[in-house]
Design a protein that fits this description.
Strand content: under 5%
Order of helices and strands: HHHHHHHHHHHHHH
Structural class: mainly alpha
Largest sheet: none
Number of domains: 1
Number of strands: 0
Radius of gyration: 23 Å
Shape: flat
């Protein structure tokens, strides 16, 4: 046993002594990630409607926005906001500089929000387009206007069907939040890097950070499985009631 411990030099006592810093890193990570997901989701709803309805003015604008933010790495976007905007004197002299754009947290929050909004827009657009035609035709037949159909029929149905795909976006956003550690924020990975650098360690900080991310992803997975069972139960019942010899069409 001692030979194994000598071969894997992990100092658990240092992790325990500094675990309060890791808890603070968890708070920073969750706070930044879920606030960005919330704001990005709110921004994505009208943009997804514009994309799905093929609005002649807003659709090309939203398409360009989503193409840019989905086509470039989150790290580059964060660096451009945190380091790039400060190069312009007009930005430094504006009212946005001192409270917002000079803060690493706000720059990361803006980058994360714009990034997740782009991905969520395309995710919701697909869910809106895939709304069963029978639901839309029934809403039209009962006299619903376009706005009423979108608010009461199409969007609730799209939100439910988007749950499985959106769970991946939440996990990807959580993993992408490690970018915050590159602009001085003490998130989970930032604390792990600090621990390794202070005590000249190789593994302890990174392994602790990896375990914390794993536990958070496990909780997120359980939450979304509960949401799927609650809001997609009718689809599960439909698959269960299908004949044994029924041939299901492949899905994308």
């Amino acid at each position: 046993m001692e030979a194994i411990l000598d071969f894997i030099p992990l100092d658990i006592s240092l992790v325990a002594q500094n675990f309060d810093r890791f808890l603070w890193g968890v708070w920073v990570t969750l706070n930044l990630t879920f606030l960005a997901l919330l704001c990005g989701g709110v921004l994505a709803i009208p943009m997804a409607i514009a994309r799905a309805s093929r609005h002649p003015i807003f659709n090309p604008m939203v398409w360009t926005y989503t193409y840019v933010f989905r086509g470039t790495p989150l790290l580059v976007q964060t660096f451009l906001i945190y380091y790039g905007l400060g190069q312009f004197e007009a930005v430094r002299e504006s009212w946005l500089w001192d409270p917002i754009l000079s803060s690493a947290w706000w720059c990361a929050f803006i980058a994360f929000t714009l990034n997740t909004a782009a991905y969520t827009t395309e995710l919701l657009r697909g869910a809106i387009i895939d709304t069963p035609k029978g639901e839309v035709e029934a809403a039209i037949a009962t006299g619903h206007s376009y706005g009423s159909r979108m608010r009461r029929i199409i969007l609730p149905s799209a939100f439910r069907r988007a749950i499985p795909a959106y769970s991946n976006e939440v996990i990807f956003m959580l993993h992408g939040s490690v970018v915050a550690s590159t602009i001085t924020l003490q998130d989970i990975l930032g604390v792990g890097r600090w621990l390794n650098g202070r005590y000249y360690l190789a593994y302890e900080g990174f392994i602790t950070a990896a375990l914390l991310y794993f536990l958070i992803v496990l909780v997120i997975t359980w939450v979304f499985r509960w949401l799927e069972r609650r809001y997609l139960r009718h689809l599960a019942d439909r698959r269960t009631d299908a004949p044994a010899d029924a041939t299901l069409e492949p899905t994308r």
